[in-house]
């Protein structure tokens, strides 16, 4: 996240210089950039795309109410777009590739290039661990998301091919933990937990508390949703919905 924000700062420094909005020091941009970056990441997770026109429209209200002196509106759009693309590649497409590798699927059958790459790197990590070789860190010249795919799959090998343990929950072939007491047992997309090999982490839309429990993130209350100005945000478990308000005056 630190590297991501620093890259966004560099991109915005150029944009601000071109627009002659230079009366605000770059250091003071961080709270603004972080907010816009979070909005871009959430847009990628909820919409599974980074359409520039839709992204700009969805953030227009946020830009208007949180604009800083000396920062052009385009600055937020640049930050949001940059972070959206990063999240789309790393959290969506790469995870798809890792899950495919864990399910022993053919990597070349993945439709997205990033998914194919992460699938291959995950497979390479599993083969290295199987041979008993060390899971040494790869060169920083290799993109971060494929390095993480290799390392996570090399360090943690599942004990079973189809059923995996994640605490007291069983995992299905899609590497998603199914909690028996949760309604997500009938809808994998809303599960609280997911298995990353033999370890446990929270899925998208949840965060882990100090006790190791996954708690829902209220994107609406935190204002990190990607709803358009004319839409109302409704929080749901693990996600949220944007609905058009047809309220009468």
From TrEMBL:
InterPro entries: EGF_Ca-bd_CS (IPR018097), NOTCH1_EGF-like (IPR049883). Residues 1-19 form the signal peptide. Pfam families: EGF_CA (PF07645). The keyword Disulfide bond applies. The keyword Cytoplasm does not apply. GO terms for molecular function: calcium ion binding. Keywords: Disulfide bond, Signal. It comes from the Eukaryota. This is NOTCH1 EGF-like calcium-binding domain-containing protein. Residues 216-246 form the NOTCH1 EGF-like calcium-binding domain.
């Amino acid at each position: 996240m630190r590297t991501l924000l620093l890259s966004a700062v560099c991109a915005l420094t150029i944009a601000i210089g071109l627009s002659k909005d230079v009366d605000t020091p770059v250091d003071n941009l961080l709270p603004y950039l972080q907010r816009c970056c979070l909005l871009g990441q959430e847009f990628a997770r909820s919409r599974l795309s980074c359409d520039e026109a839709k992204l700009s429209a969805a953030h227009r209200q946020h830009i208007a109410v949180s604009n800083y002196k000396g920062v052009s509106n385009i600055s937020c759009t640049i930050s949001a777009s940059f972070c959206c693309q990063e999240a789309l590649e790393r959290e969506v497409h790469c995870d798809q590739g890792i899950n495919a590798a864990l399910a022993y699927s053919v990597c070349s059958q993945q439709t997205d290039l990033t998914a194919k790459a992460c699938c291959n790197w995950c497979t390479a990590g599993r083969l290295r661990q199987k041979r008993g070789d060390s899971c040494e860190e790869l060169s920083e010249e290799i993109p971060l998301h494929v390095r993480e795919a290799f390392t996570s799959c090399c360090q943690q090998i599942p004990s079973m091919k189809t059923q995996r343990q994640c605490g007291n929950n069983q995992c299905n072939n899609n590497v998603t933990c199914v909690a028996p007491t949760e309604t997500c047992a009938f809808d994998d997309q809303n599960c609280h937990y997911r298995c990353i090999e033999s370890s446990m982490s929270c899925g998208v839309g949840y965060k882990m508390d100090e006790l190791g429990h996954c708690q829902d993130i209220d994107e609406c209350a935190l204002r990190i949703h990607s709803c358009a100005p004319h839409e109302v945000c409704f929080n749901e478990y693990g996600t949220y919905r944007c609905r058009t308000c047809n309220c009468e005056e």
